[in-house]
Structure formats: C-alpha cells, structure tokens
Amino acid sequence: MAVAAARVVPRTLRTESVAFAAMVALLLAAPAVFYPVFLMKALCFALFACAFNLLVGYAGLLSFGHAAFLGSAGYASAHAAKVWGVPPELAILFGTAVAAVVGLAVGALAIRRQGIYFSMITLALAQMIYFFSLQAPFTGGEDGIQAVPRGRLFGLLDLNDTLTLYFVVLAIFLGGFLVIYRAIHSPFGHVLKAIRDNEPRAISLGYKADHYKLIAFVLSAALSGLAGGTKALVFQLASLTDVHWSMSGEVVLMTLLGGLGTVAGPVVGAFVVIMLEHYLAQLGAWVTVVQGAIFVVCVLTFRRGIVGELSRLLTKPLRMNLVLTVEPPPVHRAIGTVERAQSQTTIKVAIVSSASGPTALLGLAGIEGARIAVAELNAAGGLLDRRLDLLVRDDGGRPDVGAREARQAIVEDEVAAVFGPVGSDVLLAMSDVAREHRTILITHTANTERALVERGHRYIFSVVPNTFMEGSAVARYLAQRPYQQYMVVGPDYELGHIQAEAFERRLRRDNAAASVVGRTWPKLGERHFTPHISAILAARPEAVYSNLFGSDLIEFTRQAAEHNLFTKVAFAGLYDVEALQGLGHDAVEGVIAYERGPFHVIRRLAPSERFEQFIHAYGAATNKYPSAWAINAYDAVMTWARAVQKAGTVETERVVDALEGLELDSLRGPGRFIRPIDHQANVGSYIGVVAWDPSFPDFMIWRDAVYVPGDEVWRPEAEVLAVRPAPKA
Amino acid sequence: MNWRTLLTVVATVVLTAGAAEAQISDGVVKIGVLNDQSSLYADLTGQGSVVAARMAVEDFGAPAKGLKVEIIFADHQNKADVGSNITRQWYDADKVDVIVDVPNSAVALAVNQLTRDKKKAFLVSGAASSDLTGKACSPNTIHWTYDTWALANGTGKAIVKTGGNTWFFLTADYAFGHALERDTEAVVLAHGGKVLGKVRHPLNTADFSSFLLQAQASKAKIIGLANAGGDTTNAIKQAAEFGIVKGGQNLAGLLVFLTDVHGLGLPTAQGLIFTEAFYWDMNDKTRAWGKKFAERNRGIHPTMIHAGVYASVLHYLKAVEALKSDDGSGVIAKMKETPTDDPLFGKGTIRPDGRKVHDMYLFEVKKPAESKGAWDYYTLRATIPAAEAFRPLDKGDCLLVKK
Amino acid sequence: MLGIAPQALFGQLLIGLINGSFYAILSLGLAVIFGLLNIINFTHGAQYMMGAFGAWFLLQYAGLGYWWALLVAPLLVGLIGVVLERVMLKRLYHLDHLYGLLLTFGLALIIQGLFRNQFGSSGLPYAMPAELRGGFNLGFMFLPTYRAWVVVCSLLVCLGTWYVIERTRLGSYLRAATENPTLVRAFGINVPRMITLTYGFGVALAALAGVLAAPIYQVNPLMGADLIIVVFAVVVIGGMGSIMGSIVTGFALGVIEGLTKVFYPEASNTVIFVIMALVLLVKPAGLFGRAH
C-alpha cells in the first residue's frame, strides 16, 4: 500500500556506489590542498551528525542530549590513552563502548516517552552527564583532559604524523558511515522507518517498536562515541565543551541544515557548519547569530535541508527518482491522490480517513476496502459509463484536519461524495462540512449516534451500527449472563463515552440487578494502560465492557494479560479481525468479542463468490484478511454507487432520495436497509467468543458466534423524533 | 547518494578550502595575541593586550632594524578546546612564531603543551597558575607578570600579619582557582593562620548568595576570593548586599585588576588589599606609557597584564634581533640569558624555569575622598623585592631546574 | 539537626526561595505559552535577558528608573514577542511541535549573539533602586531588602496570573481554547489574536523576571542561556500546561536546590534534572499536569 509517508523511491546500486567512490577519492586527495586538522575536525563532526541523523531522520526521535555520547566517549578515550597508556585503537574502542553503555542507559529511560517528552528526557539526562563531568575528578573540570597522547596505531602507524592521522580518521569516518548506510537499508532500517511513520500500525504488524527504537538509540550513541573518541585523540583534548547542551544543539543544526533523513545530508551539513564557524571565528559572536539564523531559515522555509532540497529540485523535472530522500518527520499532511483526472469523463469521490495517527490501523483498512470497491466498479465499466476516481485524504485522527480535508475535497476537487472517517469526533466535524456544502457523507467506521440523531441532517448516512446499536447489542448479550458488577473501559473521546452510555442504559433495562461500579478512560493512542488495569482490578468487577479498538486494544490486551486480568474478570471487547491478526498468539481465548463484520462469520452466514473475491483482492494488496473496516468501506462505496445507478445521476439531492430506504449493496449479506428517519442502515453486530480454529493457525477467530440484527437494537423511531425532529437539510 | 549529492559534497569541500589554506610566510615574525575578547576577562586583557603588543613593536623600531613583524589576535572564549584549536592552526598553518598573553590557566596550560610540542614560543602574561613554571614548565615558555604563588605570598602574608588569621576560600573551580587557593592556603598556614572552610563555584557564576552565606556561617575573619574578573566583582558586590563586611568579616581579593576596581567603583572597592606587578601611576615612565596606552585603548588605563604583554614582546624582539632567528626554543633561551630592561618593570631577570622576576607591590584601594579622578585608585602599601616575591627556584618541581 | 547548623539551613532555604521566585516566574511564562500554543519557547531565556537589558536601556537613555522599568520593559519585550509570533511562530502550528522548539532555539541564538556582539559578555551594572537597599538582620542571616522584594513581587505576579487564568472569564476562554480551539472560535472569540496575546504575555513575564534580576545579577547577554535549561526542567516537573504546577514547582525546586547545596553541594546542579527524569518516567504529565 503506497500510502506510507516516505516517498521512498528505488535507487540504483550502481549510481550510489559510484557516488560513494567519488566521495572517498575526494577525501583522499583533500589533505594535499587543505589543512588536515581542519578536515579531521569536519570528519569527526560529520560522523557525529550521521549518527544523530540515524536517530532523528530514520527513527523519528529527536534527541536533545547527544552531546552526552560524544563527550563521555571523549573523556573515556582521553583517560584511557593518557592515564592508562592504552594504544589509540583500544582507547577509541573503549570510548565507543562507554558511549554505547551510556546510550543504553539513557535510551532505556527515554524511549518510554514520545515526542517532546522524549526530547526533554534526553536533555535532562545529558545535563546530568554534563554536571557529572564538571565535578568528577578524572575529567579535569574546566581544564579538561589535556595532552592526550596519540600513540601508534596497532604499534605501527605513528599518529603524531598529521597525514597518517588524517587517513586513519578518514578510515574511521568511512567505516562508521558504511555501518549507518547498511543499517538504514537493512530490514532493521525498514522497520525503523515504518515505526517512525506509523507506530500503531507497526505494532499491529507484530513489531516490538520499543526494542527497535532502543537498538537504534544505542547504535546512534555508539557511533557518536566513535566520533568523540577519535576527536579526543586528534585534538589531544577532552573538555566540557563536548558535553555541553550547546553541542547537542550544534549537531541538530548540522543535520537540519544538511537534510534530515538523507544519507549525505549530515556530512554536508557538518562541513558547512564547521566552515562557517571557521570563517566567522574572527567576528566573535556573529557565529552564534549565523547559527541561529540558519535554524530559523531551515525551520521556516528549508525543512528538507541542503541535500533534500537539491534532490527535490533536481528530480522533479527529470523524473529520475534515484535519491533515497524522505519527507520531514511525520506531520499531519495530505496524501497524494492516486490519479488526478481533470476531464468530464470521471466522477470523483473522496475518502477522508486516518492514514496516520492512533487510529491508522482502521483508517488504512477502510481506504483499501474503498479502493477495491472503486477498482471493481471501474473494471465493470465504471459508474454511469464514467470512470470513478477515489481521492484519498489523511485526517491523522484530528477533527480540524478532517474537516479541512473534506472541505477541500468538496470545494476544490468537487467530489460527488465523501466517505470515512474513523474517529467519531472527526465525523462530527466533517458532518458539519457536508451539511454546509450539501454533499453526501457516508460513514462506514465512525459510528457516534449523535451524528445521525442530535446532529443529523439530510446528507449523512451510516452503513455501520451506531453507538446506540453496538452498545445495546453487547449489553443485551451480556445481560443474559450472570454478571452483576461491571466496569467500563473505553477511549477518552466521543465514541468511548457515547457508546458506553448506550451500553449502560441497555444493561440496566435488560438486567435490573446489574450495575456499573466504575469507568476508566485511557487516551486515544495511549501506550501505558497499567493505571487503568489497576483501576479495574481494584474495583473488582465480574465483567468488563470495553470499547477500546485497534492498536489501543492490542496494547491493552498484552498488558492486561501480564496482570492476569482475563483470568479474574469476564471481558467483552472489540476483538475484530485486525486486532486478532495483530495480537496473534497474544490474544486471549475465552474473551467475549464483538465487531461489525468478521469475515469468518460472514463466510458462514452469508457466503458468496463476491465475498471470496474481495478477501482475495484484499489479501493480495495487504497480505492480511479483511477486517470489518475494509468490508464496511467497500459496502459504503458500493451502496452509494447503487444509489447513483438508481437515480441515474450523481446529483446530490437525487442520490439522497435514492439512498433513503435503499437496500445496501453489502458484502455482509442482503436484507439491510437505510431507514429514512435517521439515515441509519439496520446493519447488525456480531458477537462471539475468541478461540483458536485449526483453519487459521496464525491468529484466533471466534466460536459460538451470533448475529444481532440492527433493527432489534436500534433506537425506536419515536424516540428518534423525541430527541429531534425529522432530518432536515 | 547520487552524483547530485556528490556535487554538493564537492562544492562544500571546495568552499571550505579557503578556510584552511596555509599561508607560507617566513621572514616575518608573526605574533599571535590569544586571549578573552568577549567574556569575563575581556576588559583586563582583550583588545588592550593587542594595543600593548603593537606599542611594543613600534617602540622596538622593527622597520628600522629590518625586521618584519606582524600581529594577529583571536578570542579563546575561555575554552581550552577553542584555545588549543586556534593555537594548533596558528602554529601549523598560519606560521605564527610566538603566542602571547593567554589569560585563563586552563587554556594557558594547553597552549603551553602545544608550544612545547611544536617548539615555538609562548609568553604568558595573563594566566596565573604557578604550575606554568612548576610542574608544567617548558623550555618554550616564559611566564611574565605574576603568578598564583606571588599573589598568595604578597596578599596572604600581608593579611595574616595584620591579624586576618582565619580564612574561608571562595574558589573558582578550575586550574587557576585551585592553584591560587592552594598557594594562599600554604602561606596562611605557614604564618600560623587557619583555614576554616572552602567552597568551589563554577567559572562565570552570576549568583554568589549561597556561597557567601556559607562563608558568613564559617565566621572566618577573612573571606579569600580565589577567582578573578567578573567573578570577583560579582562576589564583592553581592557581599556588600548581604552585609558581610558590616558583619565584621573582610574580603581578600586575591587577584584584582585596575579594571575591576573601575567597574566596582571606589565606594564599594575601597579598602581592598591585593598584590599587583604594575600600576600606571608609579613613576614618570609608567605614567607616560599609561597615558599613551589609554589614548589608544578607549580611555581604559593599562592593567598589569597589558604591561606584561608590552614588556615581554619588547624583550622577545630584542632576543630575536640578537639571535637573528625566530626559532622558538632558541629565542626563549636567549631571553633567559639576557637581563630585561623596560620602562614598565625596570630591570629584571628571567630564571631557568621561565619565571620572570621583578618587584611585586601591595596596593590598597583609595577611599573616594583620596582619589583625584578616574583611574587614580591605588595607594602603595609595600614593595616586595623580586628576590622574595616569587616561589624559590628549587621549590617548583620544574624539571628544567638542575637540583 | 542532621549535623548542620540551623542557621546555615534556614539561610540556604531562604536563598533557595529567592532563586525559586525566578524559577516560578519564568516557568509560569513557559507554562502559559506551552499550555496554549503547544510550543516550547526556547527563546524564553533570551527574552528574560532582554527584559534586564530593557531596564538598563530605559535607565541609560530615557532616564526611567527601576519602578518604571518594571512596567515598561515587559511591555516592550512582550511586544517584540507578539511580532515574533505573528511573523514566524504562526507558520509552524500545523507542524510537529518539535519544529517550534527548533525555531525558538534558533531565535535564542540570534538574540544572544546580537547582544553579545554589541555588549560583550562581561555585563553591565544596574544600580539597585534606593528604596530597596539595605536589609534586615534575621538572626540566622542578613536578608537584603531587595531579595525579599523579589520574593514578594514574584508571589504577587504568579498568584495574579493564576487567578486570571483559573478564575476569570478571560482565563476560561484561554483554557477552553487550549482544549478545543474550533469550538471557542465558534463562540465568536478571535482565537488567533488570543494566542498571539498569550505568547506576548508569557514573554512579558520572562522580561519581568529579567528586570527583577538586573540589580542583583550582572546584566549580560548570556544570563538566560543556562538558566533556561533549568527552567525547562521545572516546567516539565510541574506539568507543562499547568499554571499552579509551574508556580508551586518553581518555588519548591528553588528550595530543594538550596537544601541540596547544604547537604550535598556537588549535586546541587543536577538535582533538578534527576527529579525531572524521575517525574517523566513515573508521571509523564508532570506533578500537576493534565494529560494532553
């Protein structure tokens, strides 16, 4: 699926080898013309910047304390060479090892947090190392460790000879550079990039994100240490400057200027910054002004850095995508369209969903489902003899972005209909836009009932059971069981609360003895559920109703299993096909599961050739079984297409009329209709118990599955009217 | 990486070339003035030292004697790595023959080592650590002006003798501060005094309140300030704020310069006693030179460091002229052989360990009423003859000294 | 008590409280800015420095003394902050927060560099206002009047700010805008302008701290550079958007630092960072923070 953030473009091995060889040749010849000590300084910093870039550009972790590794390695190497009299190669290795250990300690602590907090922890820990270096007797405080002997490398090469030293430093730099290069292009590197772009998705694919990040951190720290140890020997001095936070800022500057996430960027950036400092040294404080100006300019207008901008400029017109460049670190932005046709022979629709952010797992599945539907329609000759174009937009899980993208798609791209999103809060925002611009919006994942009832209008439709229906269905199912004390856990936003309300209402109605003893609300995208798990355990319920979903549910399940939660309480959760595939062997047998379209149940209840084809197409694209998010998205597109066929036009008002009362064109089976009063389809909930099945060796599915038709649990029409009058435009 | 980025790398490296091209020039005596141009020691050395060096070159009359002399300068920002990088670059690429001044003992020690390795010459005026003629002595270095031992001996002895026999040290946490504290403590103890406590503060501290509080709590009669420049003046100002002197304790500024007193103002600085090697208002020669210097230095009168730069450069050029060479080790040796004579320090000698010896003076800061105008700040309290002012030759652990 | 003379202990505690006053005002400004803009304002240290210089300029060139400076300098520096926000920070709101951090970091370098060029690093003297000279003899130490004034002024400013933000309608708009800017905009409130003014206010707080610092610390271009790192730690510990948190934590950490100087002076520089790392691991939202 090409919706990944990186514009990862294939590169030819040959061009890269040639370029590398040329760089080596240049650097070999350089000391003939330039002052070797200056070159060595630049090389050490280039290595430092490359190591830093590994972390920020490829793992997406901005460390603000990298000086700690450069400096501590410097002190270690200097001490080893001067006080212990160790030969230079061992001194440098020792420095590298020390930096790796420090990196392990810092990384293990810092990785637990993300974003700005991660950066702040690295800063704090680096400050501690700075002050330790200030106080510790062996570092010499303000004086530093001076007169570090260079010695003879391997007993043979006299490093006091500047030229010999230069070639040794060059070899070290190239070695480090190659290590980084290999790491980036290895499977490890790809996983790292996947984690950077979309961590929840990577977790759902089974990768232990924290381990990968820690390995990247230690590698980055070790190579920074290599640079630091080498530098200490070249300058025969290890001082506080190398552990000060301004050094951490400098390496950020070099990498940002050169180009974050590019291979050559840090090298270029390092050379440029060192050169600037040299030229401007006469002018004293102007150096800091220029450095600051570079930061500002880069952040405002030059985020790709020198190498990044150059490659972009050069590749755009030539269409030769040979450079492995990557967009700046993940940020909410739209994803390019599949095709942008301008002619009258196409109909455009848009799906606005989350391709990034905490709900990406569901969003991406839906996008793929919609894609397959559009492809099928086009393969069958199109819609009204016109080709159907699907524009894909990423809301990142944010209502304001979703609203903006929807508005743009409607106003600028003139789409005939909008599908999506995942987040119920995003749905509410997009729904306002749809109403304002009188465009059809069909939700196939976000299911807050409020979008249809309290805030419903003529243009919004739902092909997914809404919160009232889903909550009530599960409540009805559980009410037949003997549990009396319940605990509710759900994501802390619209969906979590509204659906829990519906659940509680139905539960009380169907089982008077039942009560809810507590509720706990983790944040969407939460990674640490221990406090919530503890809250549940402390409240001692008999059963827990959860409407966590996607990667949140996956993480929750893993952590809750460690606390033996599932042996202590009955648990009902949204264990859909995505979650179960993601959990694999970590899923828990015997928990109650509910969802909106498990393929293994649909296969039994409503088998069809078409469904098998869909499963096949989905598998070909993603290597997975389709989840309800994909199936329902497919259904949404197909149902809209059916309405268009029926109306004979894409004109909104006519299609709306056609949709009301229409039977869904659904993979889930026949017999589902859209009721006019709130535009809700009577699609039902599937409930079962998680279990292994011999036909699926890699992930669990369900046993004892039942289907609760939508019309048995939806809000009666009279009540809908009571809450609001009939839907108006 | 493809050829496009290669192009970028090439371009970058080519552009950086200019930064590092070596200029071959011989037949020129190139003097590098390396000191603090922008931080806490900028006023007592800084551009003033460059002026002093220039005046020395002019007074020597280089052109008339057929000697080409060039002066360059740089800011070491009080960082050992910056200083050593500049030094390395100067010696390797820029053909500098001698480096002068270098306040901040940490930097001076680094420069000392490099000078020795590369067999150039180093004339220290600004730095204080007595290790430069002790443990770290070198055949390529001459330590002019003053050092921590001389300060300690002058000020410490004088104060203890007048009754200040319990001390608390407030020390700048680096080579200089440690050396000054060590040397002063030795003097205090040798004369029957006691050290009641010490506290170390980072270089360039803004707030001394908690350290001063500790000094106050110690109830020592004398609070010795083993620091310099901005640190000293800050400590003195804040001591006034906290009523330390009113509370009965006295401050001993172990290293105070004319510019510090100027910055503090006489009302705050009056009564301070300290040792210096030079004061512009001592005799006619010094007065004449001082006035000339002030005109070229924005009205700021010379400190002893400026005077040291002038005198050392003058003596150096004389040695170069006599030797007809600017080879570092040779010139230093020649300078040690030749007795010194300049309008600022008078007649003097340089010892085998690199120590220049001359009289040291104990000054007291005048009360505002006693001063006739700006820069008229000191009263001479005592003269310490050269023979007693500096650490005895055999007590320094210098390997150049034959026992 | 614990082998340390009570005099020394109380004295250092009081000094700690005074230092804490600066931490409190500075972290309050940072917390206000982060709470609303989600931007880590690295320029805060430079703006603190500009406040001190502002006081010096006002005295030098306009003859306006300390009491005027307390009002005018923060206003002027706050205005500069408003310009900064309008011209530069605004463009970064739709991006990752870390870009804001990098931008403000760069701005801090520029500002500090420019001032250093002009004024050198050694600093300029600023006379203490006559009304606040002298001090009280408390027995265990001599407390300068000015330092007592610093504590009082900072308490007033902090509590005043807290009151406005937590207890007035304007403050409730501000807080609502943090949670849900779209909704607040729907109420007809000009959210972008509010954001700009909030940034200006936070910057003005930093400048005020600078004016307070001018008479006792040297007015020099680098006075904010190392201080800002400590203030970050304080803000993170308190909870990055929490107003009361930053105030309480500022004072508390000043005191803790003072205590550390008594018992274990070598650790006095690091103690705040150790606490920060611990808090981030155990309670990432900070001691008083609301989880975002």
What does this structure look like?
The complex is a heterotrimer of chains A (729), B (403) and C (292). Chain A has 729 residues and is α/β, with parallel strands linked by helices. In chain A, 54% of the residues lie in helices and 11% in strands. Chain A is built from 27 helices and 18 strands. In chain A, the strands form 5 sheets. A 7-stranded mixed sheet of chain A has the order 11-10-12-13-14-17-18, with helices on both faces. Chain A has a 5-stranded parallel sheet with strand order 6-5-7-8-9, sandwiched between helices. Chain A has a two-stranded antiparallel ribbon with strand order 1-4. The longest helix of chain A is centred in the N-terminal third of the chain and has 27 residues, at 209-235. Chain A is elongated and about 90 Å long. Residues 1-10 and 317-343 of chain A have low confidence and may be disordered. Chain B is an alpha/beta fold. Chain B has 2 domains: 28-146 and 282-354, Response regulator (Rossmann fold), CATH 3.40.50; 150-276 and 360-387, Response regulator (Rossmann fold, 3-Layer(aba) Sandwich), CATH 3.40.50. Helix content of chain B is 42%, strand content 19%. Chain B is built from 14 helices and 15 strands. Chain B has helices at residues 3-20, 46-60, 80-92, 105-118, 148-161, 175-190, 209-218, 229-241, 258-264, 266-269, 284-296, 304-323, 328-337, 386-389; strands at residues 28-35, 68-75, 98-101, 121-124, 141-143, 166-172, 194-201, 222-226, 250-253, 273-276, 340-342, 346-350, 356-357, 360-365, 378-384. In chain B, helix 12 packs across helix 13 (328-337). Chain C has one domain: ABC transporter involved in vitamin B12 uptake, BtuC, CATH 1.10.3470. Chain C has helices at residues 6-37, 44-62, 66-87, 97-119, 145-167, 169-179, 181-186, 191-213, 225-238, 243-263, 271-282; strands at 135-137, 142-144. In chain C, strand 1 (135-137) and strand 2 (142-144) form a beta hairpin. In chain C, helix 2 packs parallel to helix 4. Chains A and C meet through helix 5, helix 10, helix 12 and helix 15 of A and helix 4, helix 9 and helix 11 of C.
